[in-house]
Structure formats: structure tokens, C-alpha cells
Design a protein that fits this description.
500 residues; alpha/beta; Aldehyde Dehydrogenase, Chain A, domain 1; Aldehyde Dehydrogenase, Chain A, domain 2; 3 domains; 7-stranded mixed sheet
């Protein structure tokens, strides 16, 4: 019989109370164990991803197994530096004090994964939470059943069973889990479910990271290399059959650029998948029948320029380009999350920016242009979770930049150091001493109050260090130069007088 949600959380809370997850050596060992899980079970993980999503081995390694493994290696290399107290700059009022920031683990963390990248967005945040010193309850997605089963089987073999538990179940079980009090919740999934998770978190005032999605726009300017751009846009849309939260959702360009893009895309797709893409082993499948039917309905509206073939038995939808889509069409009313790329025509980049800003802030935005003014115009006049210029998806793979949404596309961020920071509370520490100087400085706050004390207090609060320590070398060079100039002048005057 499976333990209840209350028992799962109580077990994790009891484990955290022992303090063992805070030890650096313990964290490092658990991360090394998780790395071994990937290294020793790669074929099994690849098979599970193939069964759930039809992923090719190369895609599974690049986007899931290898991605998570490299994140752990990076964390292990930096962890001892991240864990240590931070020492922010001190100002005049605290010049004799010690100012620190401790990186405290939150405690018991709930990680709710998604089905589209069932390893990356489940075990990835798990590794970050381990590094930060937390206990974790991991809820993988039941919509990727084979991967869920492998996670539930392997994690207990490699990680501490009390500190890190896998909880399996459907939507009702997740709702019961969310009734428990956690110290932090990390959720990846749709905006609709994200709102429910956030509402449940509010019952306990639990801090939350929401990795959601939205319609990520792709602006294709006439100054771009259209053929290279087409390769990169189609790849970003093709990976995982378009079931990627930062996949380019739709293309914005003028009609001439659109015509050139379609022509190039036809040639590229033949080269990639041959004349019958359904026979290609390189193209993933739709996760389930419900999503297949939803995507098939979206194909009913719009002019098919490329593709359009479907097979319900195989959950196959060909990479399809829809031409001249209108903003009122059904496909523009929701995140597509599939291998369908609509093209909507605009007059210029300003029109594209206007359209993007009329809708919710996307998780990702893409702009293709050689013209730097066009790129700057887009970057300065739009808001999104992240941006890749002249490519797609790739910003999410940069190790030490934050990945996350803004507005309707989510809150919070992770990856690398930002993943560690997500799962720690930045606790400020001020250590005062008992020196007479420090007490003299502080005495202005004590009664009886007076006008002179008030003026002194305001002055002390405004004063900053006159210069940063980093300028000392420059100041020394300046001083040496000044003294040299004076010295040479003195010698010159001395000899002039002697000669006279």
C-alpha cells in the first residue's frame, strides 16, 4: 500500500530536521549518485523516452540525459563556492560590522514535473534542490508513464530514501499532495494547471517557481539569411515534435520573406526526412490521443503550405507550415505545443513588435536579422522570459544564465547557479561588535532625540565610501606619476640655478 501524502511529507520533514542534507559532503555525494544514475542507466532512460514520445536517442541525450548530466557536473564544480556566505559591500554606517548573506535551504520542496521533457524538468530541478540542501518530494508526470516508472524505480536506488521521495499518481493525487504544507514548490507545465498550483501554494503562503509557456513569437526580418534562419527555425519547431515550451510558436514576417522561407523550408524538410516523413526515425510523436485530436483540429483552419499529413494510430503529425494565418484564427488563440508553424504577415518589424506586445509575455522570443537596428528595436521594446537572436531554443542551454518566464509565462528561474539560488533563502546577517567606536556611531539613535542628532543621523545614512578599493591601483599609479613629474621639475630647476 502506497503511503499517504501526509506520510510522505512527514517523512521528508523528519529527515530534514536531522540536518544531514545541509552537510556539503552529503549534497555532493547525492549529486554524484544522481550522475551515476544517468551514466549507468542511459539505455533504459532512452527506451522510456522512445516509448512515451518517440524520441530518437540523439535527441534524448542532447535534450535530457546529457543536459541534466552536464548541469550536475557544473554544480559539483561550483557548489562549495555557492554554499559559502556571501559578503556584500558595506557602507559607512556598517564599516565596523560584519555583513553576510547565508544561503539557507528552504526545507521540504515539492517538484512537479511535466511530460514533454520528463527527465529534464523533473530530475533537473531535483538536482538543484539537492545542491541547495533541501529534502524533495518529486512528482513526475503520469502522462509519460514509462519515464515515470523508470524514475520511480531508479531514484530510490541511488538517492537517500528519506530525503528524496518519488510520489506517483494522477491529477487527484497531485491535488491531495498540494494540500500539504511545503516550504517551496517548483512546477513545470501549462498555465492552466500553474494557476491551480499557485492557488494551492497561497493557502500556506508557500513561495513558488512556475515554469509555464505561452506563444513564443519568431520575428524574421528581410535582412536575415533566410536559408540559415529556416534551418534553425524548423529545428526549433521539430525537436520533440514541437512539444517544447520555448518552441517558436508562430512566425512574423512580410509576404516576400514568407515566400522565400516556405521555398527554403520545403527543400530542408525533404533533406531531413525524405519524401515520407512518417517513416523517419528522427521525428518524435505526439504524447497521447487527446493532444493529437487537439492539434488535428487546429489544422482544419488555415492554408497548408507544407505538410499536413496525420496518422491517429501512430499519433503522427507531419511538420506543417500554415500560410497567411490571421490573428483571429483558432491556432492563434492558444499555445500550439506541436509541429505546426503558422506564418502571420506584418508590414515591418514595428508591426511585429506591436502584435507581440498585444499578447501575454512569452517564455521565449526569437528575432532573425543581420540589421543590428532591427535587433535592438525588438530587444528594447518587448518583454519575454528569454531571447535568442538568429537561432531558436539555444539560450536555454547556456549554463550560467537564468531560464524562466515573466508575467503569464511564469515566475522564477533556474539552471546553473540560478537553480541553486531558487531553492535557497538568502538570509541577511548583521554582526555588530561591542567596540566603543561602534557604540559611539550607534548612539545617535538613542533618546533623548535632538535636532543635532537627527542631522548627524541623516548625514551618516547618506555617506558612502569615498571610493571603491578597485580604484586603489589607479590612484597609486596617478600618485607615482604626479610625484615623478614634481621630481623631474625640481631637478630641472636645481640644475638651471646651478648653471646660472
Amino acid at each position: 500500500m502506497s503511503p499517504s501524502t501526509e506520510e510522505v511529507v512527514t517523512r521528508a520533514r523528519n529527515a530534514f530536521s536531522t540536518g544531514r542534507t545541509k552537510a556539503v559532503a552529503f549534497r555532493e555525494q547525492q549529486l554524484k549518485n544522481l550522475l551515476r544514475l544517468y551514466e549507468e542507466n542511459a539505455p533504459r532512460l532512452e527506451e522510456a523516452l522512445k516509448a512515451d514520445l518517440g524520441k530518437h536517442k540523439q535527441e534524448s541525450i542532447a535534450m535530457e540525459i546529457g543536459f541534466n548530466s552536464n548541469n550536475i557536473r557544473n554544480t559539483l564544480a561550483e557548489l562549495r563556492k555557492w554554499i559559502g556566505p556571501e559578503r556584500p559591500p558595506k557602507y559607512f554606517m556598517n564599516m565596523s560590522d560584519e555583513v553576510l548573506i547565508y544561503n539557507d535551504p528552504y526545507g521540504v520542496v515539492l517538484v512537479i514535473g511535466a511530460w514533454n521533457y520528463p527527465l529534464q524538468v523533473s530530475l533537473g530541478p531535483l538536482a538543484d534542490a539537492i545542491a541547495a540542501g533541501n529534502c524533495v518530494v518529486l512528482k513526475p508526470s503520469e502522462l509519460a508513464p514509462e519515464t515515470e516508472k523508470v524514475i520511480a524505480e531508479l531514484v530510490p536506488k541511488y538517492l537517500d530514501n528519506d530525503c528524496y521521495q518519488v510520489f506517483r499518481g494522477g491529477p487527484e493525487d497531485t491535488q491531495e499532495l498540494l494540500k500539504q504544507r511545503f516550504d517551496y514548490i517548483f512546477f513545470t507545465g501549462s498555465s492552466r494547471i500553474g494557476k491551480l498550483v499557485h492557488a494551492a501554494a497561497n493557502e500556506h503562503i508557500t513561495p513558488t517557481t512556475l515554469e509555464l509557456g505561452g506563444k513564443s513569437p519568431c520575428i524574421l526580418d528581410e535582412s536575415a539569411d533566410i536559408d540559415i534562419a529556416a534551418h534553425r527555425i524548423l529545428w526549433g519547431k521539430w525537436v520533440n515534435a514541437g512539444q517544447t515550451c520555448i518552441a517558436p510558436d508562430y512566425l512574423l514576417c512580410n509576404r516576400e520573406v514568407g515566400r522565400r522561407f516556405i521555398s527554403s523550408a520545403e527543400s530542408i524538410l525533404r533533406k531531413w526526412y525524405g519524401t515520407d516523413p512518417q517513416k523517419s526515425e528522427d521525428f518524435a510523436r505526439i504524447i497521447n490521443g487527446n493532444n493529437f485530436k487537439r492539434l488535428s483540429r487546429l489544422l482544419e483552419n488555415g492554408k497548408v503550405a507544407i505538410g499536413g499529413k496525420t496518422d491517429e494510430a501512430e499519433k503522427f503529425i507531419q511538420l506543417t507550415v500554415l500560410d497567411d494565418v490571421k490573428d483571429t484564427d483558432p491556432i492563434m488563440q492558444e499555445e500550439i505545443f506541436g509541429p505546426i508553424l503558422p506564418i502571420m504577415y506584418v508590414d515591418d518589424v514595428k508591426d511585429a513588435i506591436k502584435y507581440v506586445n498585444q499578447n501575454g509575455k512569452p517564455l521565449a522570443l526569437y528575432v532573425f536579422a543581420k540589421n543590428k537596428k532591427v535587433v535592438d528595436l525588438v530587444l528594447k521594446n518587448t518583454s519575454s522570459g528569454g531571447v535568442t537572436v538568429n537561432d531558436t531554443l539555444m539560450h536555454a542551454g547556456v549554463a550560467n544564465v537564468p531560464f524562466g518566464g515573466v508575467g503569464s509565462s511564469g515566475m522564477g528561474a533556474y539552471h546553473g547557479k540560478y537553480g541553486f539560488d531558487t531553492f535557497v533563502h538568502k538570509k541577511p546577517i548583521l554582526v555588530k561588535n561591542f567596540s566603543s567606536f561602534g557604540e559611539k556611531m550607534s548612539s545617535v539613535r538613542y533618546p533623548p532625540y535632538s535636532e543635532s542628532k537627527c542631522k548627524l543621523l541623516v548625514t551618516l545614512m547618506k555617506v558612502r565610501f569615498p571610493f571603491s578599493l578597485k580604484f586603489i591601483p589607479y590612484s597609486l599609479f596617478f600618485a607615482v606619476g604626479l610625484l615623478s613629474a614634481f621630481g623631474l621639475g625640481f631637478v630641472e630647476r636645481y640644475y638651471k640655478k646651478k648653471l646660472m
